[in-house]
Amino acid sequence: MTQDPVVPSTARMIDYWLGGRHHFPVDVTAAQAFEGAYGPCAAIFRSLRDFSGRAVAHLVDHGIDNFLVFGAGVPSQGNVHEVASGSHVLYTDIDPVTIALGQEILADHQRAGYAFGDATDLSSIEPEALTRFLPGWGREPIGVVFLGLAAFLDDPTLARTLARLHRAVPPGSMLAFDFDGEELADHPVALAMMGDGFHMRAPAGFPDLLGDWRLTPDGIVPVARWRAEDPPADVPDAFHGGVALH
Ligand SMILES: C[S@@+](CC[C@H](N)C(=O)[O-])C[C@H]1O[C@@H](n2cnc3c(N)ncnc32)[C@H](O)[C@@H]1O
Fold first, then answer.
1. CB of 115 closer than 6 A to ligand 1?
2. Rounded Cα distance, 142 and 120, in Å
3. Ligand 1 contact, 14 CB (< 6 A)
4. What is the pLDDT of residues 154-190, one digit of tens each?
5. What are the tens digits of pLDDT across the range 193-233?
6. pLDDT above 70: residue 1
7. I need a surface site. Which of 100, 189, 225, 244 has the fewest CB within 10 A?
């Protein structure tokens, strides 16, 4: 069993908001403090996870069956391998506690695994993990899932990272992405809780960061409205996202 951490993680706070079981007291304290400054979060993160589900299902519809997930967080509550249930999925993250938790959750899973991976440095992913969990790596189109991560990278780092990912995967690959809009600017106490390394972005500027990834006609929209159910979830436009093609 993973030992209780002393530092909260945004990924495990999301698990708490989604009603999951994979978080610790320190995450609950941080999540409740954030809600005190911002307001209820559960519906917002449910709508974000629902967007993830629709985007992953869209990639599956395009024939993708190998998924490389960055900043993966907790692999439950409708995460990638639960939606793309017949696919091969490698989840990666840099937070050791979340990685250990993910490896526990996926211990008995044949086609999904979890490994350390810094999105800004593809060589940080163990080749054995890529070979074992992504049999198509280097040969077949890859679904690159880049959700909940852009906020932690500045513009030059994000653009460089997306460009490297584009070079690393073959034609036919697809990218699912999201990013934090500027809504949190209206909640300065909550914004301060996210720290200095937190980056909000205006949707109009995001296509420039995509480089050679080609945005689909669905465009970049608030996540609740991306190929939405009718009617879309009624939540603040905190996150925007879309899908892009190699
Ligand atoms: C907000 S959580 C998102 C979790 C999950 N993708 C989701 O949407 O629920 C962000 C995650 O990104 C991870 N992270 C931050 N910087 C990273 C980096 N450079 N490479 C990979 N993961 C990173 C954090 O450890 C954290 O688990």
1. no
2. 17
3. yes
4. 999 999 999 999 999 999 999 999 999 999 999 999 9
5. 999 999 999 999 999 999 999 999 999 999 999 999 788 99
6. no
7. 189
Whether 43 maps to a domain, the answer reads no
**Is 12 domain-assigned?**
no
Q: What is the whole-number distance in angstroms between the Cα of residue 75 and the centre of ligand 1?
A: 12
Q: Is residue 236 in a domain?
A: yes
Q: What residues make up the domain containing 117? A: 48-184+196-245
Report the separation in Å between the CA atom of 118 and the middle of ligand 1, taken as the mean of its atom positions: 9
Residue 231: asked if its preceding bond is cis (omega within 30°), the reply is yes
Assign 176 to helix, strand or coil.
strand
CATH code, domain with 95: 3.40.50.150
- Give 92's strand partners: 115
- Domain assignment present for residue 88? The answer is yes
For residue 107, give every residue at least 6 positions away whose Cβ sits within 8 Å of its Cβ, in sequence order, or none: none
CB atoms within 10 A of CB 202: 10
Q: pLDDT digits over 106-137, tens only?
A: 999 999 999 999 999 999 999 999 999 999 99
Ligand 1 centroid–CA 175 distance in Å is: 16
Domain count, the chain: 1
